[in-house]
Design brief:
The protein is mainly α. 80% of the residues lie in helices and 1% in strands. The longest helix has 36 residues. 56% of the residues are buried.
Length: 557
Amino acid sequence: MARGILKSMATVSGLILVSRVLGFFRQVLITGVIGASGSPVADAFWAAFRLPNMFRRLFAEGAFQAAFIPLFQGHHVKDGHDAAKRFAEDVMAWLVVILTGLTAIVMLATPAFVYLLASGFAEEPEKFDLAVVYTRIMFPYLACMSLVGMFGGILNALHRFAAAAAAPVVLNITMITAVLLFANADTTMTGEAAAWGVFAGGVLQLGVLALGARQLGFSLRLRLPKVTPHVKRLLILGTPGFIGAGALQINTIIGTNIASREQGAISWLMNADQLYQLPLAAIGIALGIVLMPSISRAVKEGNEEKARNTMNRGLELGLLFAVPSAAALIAMPVFLCQALFQDFAGDALSVVGRSESAFNDRDSAATGLALMVYGFGLPAFILHKILASAFFAREDTKSPMKTALVAIAINATLSISLFPVIGFIAIPIATITASWIEISILSWRLHRRGILRPDQRLASRTPRIILAAAAMGYLVWTMQANAPWLIEHIFLRQWILLIAIAGLGVGVYFSLILLLGGARLADLKSALSGAGKGGPDKGREGGGKAIAPPDDKSEKD
């Protein structure tokens, strides 16, 4: 079963990683064209993009699926294909009605929503008006993402993870195309083109997942909405689930509003967000997507031991990749931003006739500072995805909701109180503080219920993972500190040196992991190739016998 999780995670992680790499390339292109601190277009565009991006993360990656998947899976396992299909059609009927109404309201009252999102723009009419235009173009993307979340939930519940994980690639391709076509136009027009790329990407994503569900026999018909007992159950689960799974997104909106009072701050935070979201998506979101159906099925089968073991292996994998990712972000944040948003962006944009990136040294320093702070919170963000899956798989959405409310209050209090003192950096500091407190509370609640019981294998491997990541981080820091000499004599370009540092860091980290016993070679091969076969880990390691999950031949990948 552990290898089944690895294989499924590898599939999802690989596709999400492709999407995030394309998303990063999209970010580099847009940032290189419209800049950050020197452009009203940059802050306006990224503020407007916050709303559809937030709903994408909630519907396609989190809260909606957390409520929908266990119920859909229950219908499919207990009542059969037709009952599950009818449930999905009932849900879709309500989604269409609600989202059509919400989209109409937002389109008519866009200025009010922009003020709610970025009240600081009210003092700069040009920036405020641009944000209104961009929001109106992009907001219908929400309707698409809600339905994408439902079709993706159907596919994930049936253990068909590839299509849902690959869908975001479409969005990034449409945005990249739009930006390249208008790279030499006025920056206002470039921003508008990128906004239309978001809208088109949402429509295309919906088409891809609807086709994937249809191939599995779930060609859904549009029905008149009815308040069935199953829809009521989804609403009961979904309402607190949105708050629980969406705490980070709500905190992001709070941070955006506060950051709108400092020129360039929204762009700096958005760029830092894009960089730390790369490992978060490839690790945390992938594990959350794969773990919840596995834990949910084990719980419904009455096999709590299997559910606990699945959780332990998920935590182990999360730490294996989260800790070194955090170490790298902390060790070279400013160099990372310079290499990507200035050096690489300038080279990439030269293809379309741009002489250099509009992102400057001040932007790199500010973005790097935010990125370093987010690096300290990255393990918490990833562990939250894993811990929350244990609650959602048991149809408990109230516990994460209560914890999320505490986190939101802490985040808002710290952001508001610290911003006048230390500026925009207060926002990531508040975010990571709230996140660490949130996962501490979630862990305590799971432990108290007997759900979270770290086994000897997890306890033995965790300190070895931390030691290997610390050594790798020191190596990365040393190399970036000597970047001027290395660029002048060997690598010529910052982004080429960055690739070399990343490659060496990965090699050193995994070599140390194997030497220290933080993982087995078979585990790494399974995680990286998705081709793991055979039974569970029954070997010994370091501190004693590893406790492995039972071999479940029926578990689907």
